TrEMBL record:
Species name: Guillardia theta (strain CCMP2712) (Cryptophyte)
Cross-referenced InterPro entries: PP2C (IPR015655), PPM-type-like_dom_sf (IPR036457), PPM-type_phosphatase-like_dom (IPR001932)
CDD domains reported for this sequence: PP2Cc (cd00143)
Lineage, uppermost ranks: Eukaryota, Cryptophyceae, Pyrenomonadales, Geminigeraceae, Guillardia
Keywords (A to Z) from UniProt: Membrane, Transmembrane, Transmembrane helix
SUPFAM superfamilies: PP2C-like
Record protein name field: PPM-type phosphatase domain-containing protein
């Protein structure tokens, strides 16, 4: 309050100075010209110089430097400059006090994703067939709870098949359906306590989409087709030959799985194999999954503890058991399918790693790509390509192919919006 009064007084005095006639800053000799100066007296202590003619509110401040007497108009300008300087000083103090009293900017602001945009692109590349599959479900919830949801729910996944597309095909169609059977799917609430339930679901359901269920389903389909073709009079030889054919295909087929499930402000990622999920956080890449390669120290130690081997055969491969598992090896240490590497010994595992990440306002989008992308692009390069481009997933695919990727190339992008 005191500073506000001083501020008003200064403005008033400044107006008086500008409207008053020209006057000196101060007077050194006040004796009229017609009067002789007094006779000198005995030396005495020097008297204090006359006080300068300055506003009273400035007397508290350090005295300004002395100026010689002058009747020039420039003295008035000097006085105005001093007053303006003092006004600036008071104004600066007010700004400083206002800043000190204002609350500090909040960090880690709460973020609730309200809208998700998704897209994917895939290229066969130099491979003889396309074995990759992707799934995009931007509204992953039953319509009955739509009005009660407080944030977006979305499902996004990339399945990179090998030795055929049977497993990746099946997983892409089966995984969302299995997740939709879980209790949390039908609940509009997504409290933190459900994080454990969701991660457990992802782990369990990834296992359920493994080779055993696929094999059982394919055998049942084969038997049904056999009955239909033969009008109920099945040929035992035909039945056996078809079953053995499917068995042979399913024995060698497999797939990676990288699944992202967004529930409000929490992003869950389950990974099996060498597909990868990368989050763009304020322009910087942050990997949300770790590639399950055979030469990864933890994976190599596990394989060798089971008397398996990790050998270089064009790339690092899991070698174990007998037959095809020992002859060819597998380039990933965890996967769906790949029965010869799992029975009777699980040199290759089907248990995914699951991470849960709480999104912030800095999180922009998620990239999920198969190894055909990450063989030629690092995480930051993919983010830098995608960030300024509306056709994010297409740009990444095109760049991967230009850099010589010989594999199938599949990229899915999930963009977060808070609105």
């Amino acid at each position: 309050m005191e500073e506000e009064n001083e501020y008003d007084k200064l403005l008033s005095e400044l107006d008086d100075i500008e409207s008053s006639p020209i006057r000196p800053w101060k007077t050194i000799n006040n004796t009229p010209k017609h009067q002789a100066p007094p006779a000198p007296s005995a030396p005495s202590a020097p008297s204090a110089p006359p006080a300068p003619a300055v506003p009273s509110v400035l007397l508290k401040a350090p005295a300004p430097p002395k100026r010689e007497a002058s009747w020039d108009q420039s003295d008035v300008g000097d006085e105005i400059e001093d007053l303006l300087g003092e006004l600036d000083h008071i104004a600066a103090n007010k700004v400083q006090q206002a800043c000190a009293s204002a609350p500090a900017p909040a960090t880690n602001l709460p973020f609730r994703c309200k809208l998700v945009c998704m897209g994917a692109a895939e290229e066969q590349g130099l491979r003889p067939q396309m074995e990759d599959k992707h799934v995009l479900v931007p509204d992953f919830y039953p319509k009955s709870i739509e009005e009660k949801l407080s944030g977006a729910r979305a499902f996004c996944a990339v399945f990179d098949g090998h030795s055929g597309s049977q497993i990746s095909d099946y997983a892409a169609g089966r995984m969302p359906a299995l997740l939709a059977l879980e209790a949390w799917y039908r609940s509009p609430l997504t409290p933190d306590t459900q994080v454990h339930q969701v991660t457990a679901s992802l782990e369990l359901l990834t296992l359920r989409t493994g080779s055993e269920e696929v094999f059982d389903k394919r055998v049942r389909e084969t038997r049904f087709r056999d009955h239909v073709v033969n009008d109920g009079r099945k040929s035992e030889r035909r039945h056996v030959s078809l079953s053995l054919l499917w068995l042979l295909i399913l024995l060698v087929a497999g797939s990676t799985a990288n699944v992202a499930l967004l529930l409000g402000d929490v992003l869950h990622v389950a990974n099996l194999g060498d597909s990868r999920a990368v989050l763009c956080r304020n322009g910087f890449a942050q990997a949300l999954s770790e590639d399950h390669k055979p030469d990864l120290p933890s994976e190599k130690a596990r394989i060798e503890s089971l008397d398996g081997r990790v050998e270089w055969r064009g790339c690092w491969r899991v070698i174990g058991g007998s037959g095809i598992a020992a002859f060819r090896g597998l380039a990933v240490s965890r996967a769906l399918g790949d029965v010869p590497w799992k029975v009777p010994v699980s040199y290759v595992e089907g248990t995914p790693d699951v991470t849960s990440t709480k999104l912030t306002a800095d999180d922009e989008f998620l990239i999920i790509g198969c190894d055909g992308v990450w063989d030629v692009l690092n995480n930051q390069e993919a983010v830098d390509l995608a960030r300024p481009c509306r056709r994010r997933r297409v740009m990444i695919n095109e760049q991967a192919l230009e850099r010589g990727s010989k594999d199938n190339v599949t990229v899915a992008v999930m963009i977060f919006f808070q609105c």
